[in-house]
């Protein structure tokens, strides 16, 4: 089995997905509405992407901007989205919700995870807004399927978060409780960050805008993804 580092790319549609896979992406995060930092895509979009590529797809579960799950009816809608995506064949997901105090919204997360089981899933950058990262990790540690944290190490992005990322990677290497899931670095990630992160043991990377040199109104650029693939593998 390949042990190469993971490159995950945000895809909004099948065109993005095909370009990302051709450039060397290992996995896609499927979202819509990047003006809201990425919401749950339509089931039809998932189906088109699934038919277009053969790499792993992680579907975002979020219906509004921010890290609140919203009102009870919105949580119900999220649960319905899981069911529809599972019927269509989705088997990997991305989610993460906090309460007003910055603690994990365990009621919502546990409800969704019950619907996802046995799927694998990522807890996304809500961790970067948590009141206590270590406490959040330990509260979520026993949830089935959690294998990844998407994080910049800081709400301000990777520039500020590198010390945290390196420390958490070291905690994972030591086998500390709550630090088993893979760290997927994303949020202002640049090519020049890679040498330090790779040297510190980080082995999974997430790009969105960085895969689109012409902006979010343009599709993923295959050559740019390939540049990232080569830099990560160097």
From TrEMBL:
It comes from the Bacteria. It comes from Streptomyces niveus. This is Copper homeostasis protein cutC homolog. InterPro entries: CutC-like (IPR005627), CutC-like_dom_sf (IPR036822). Belongs to the CutC family. Pfam families: CutC (PF03932).
């Amino acid at each position: 089995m390949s042990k190469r580092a993971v490159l995950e790319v945000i895809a909004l549609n099948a065109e993005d997905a095909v370009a990302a896979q051709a450039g060397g992406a290992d996995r896609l995060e499927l979202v819509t509405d990047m003006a809201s930092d990425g919401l749950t895509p339509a089931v039809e979009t998932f189906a088109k992407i699934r038919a277009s590529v053969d790499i792993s797809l992680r579907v975002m579960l979020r219906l509004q901007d921010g890290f609140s799950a919203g009102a009870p009816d919105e949580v119900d809608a999220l649960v319905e989205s899981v069911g529809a995506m599972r019927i269509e064949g989705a088997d990997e997901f991305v989610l993460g919700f906090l309460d007003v105090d910055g603690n994990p919204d365990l009621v919502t997360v546990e409800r969704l995870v019950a619907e996802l089981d046995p799927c694998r899933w990522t807890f996304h950058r809500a961790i970067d807004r948590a009141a206590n990262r270590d406490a959040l990790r330990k509260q979520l540690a026993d949830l089935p399927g959690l294998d990844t944290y998407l994080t910049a190490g800081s709400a301000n992005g990777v520039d500020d978060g590198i010390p945290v990322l390196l420390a958490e990677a070291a905690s994972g290497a030591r086998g500390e409780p709550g630090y088993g899931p893979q760290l997927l670095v994303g949020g202002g990630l640049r090519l020049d960050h890679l040498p330090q992160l790779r040297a510190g043991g980080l082995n999974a990377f997430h790009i969105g805008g960085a895969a689109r040199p012409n902006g979010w109104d343009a599709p993923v650029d295959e050559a740019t993804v390939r540049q990232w693939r080569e830099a990560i593998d160097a």
